[in-house]
Amino acid sequence: QVQLVESGGGLVQAGGSLRLSCEVSGSNFAADSMAWYRQAPGNQRDWVARIYRSGTTAYADSVKGRFTTSRDNDKSTMYLQMNRLNPEDTAVYYCNKLFIPYYPWGQGTQVTVSS
Prior knowledge:
The chain is an all-beta fold.
């Protein structure tokens, strides 16, 4: 059974930074292209950053230049460094595969940015 555990969220003021982590167990992590997703209340879950198994990254326009994702295949962990946060970044952040079928979703980690 694959498990995804996100951590690192919290309350931060606008302009601040957070670093999220996603630990993956039960899968061949290095073989998967992965992504970070976020869901704000009343909104659908959207991807914000992706990292292919090659290490190539891509970002949604809303976070480009502010967020950076990376991965450590030896630790089966991926990261999301978020800088210059603004209130529009407030959401629950999740990690999962980039392509379907997805793994069972984790609980996510709440990021709240105050103005």
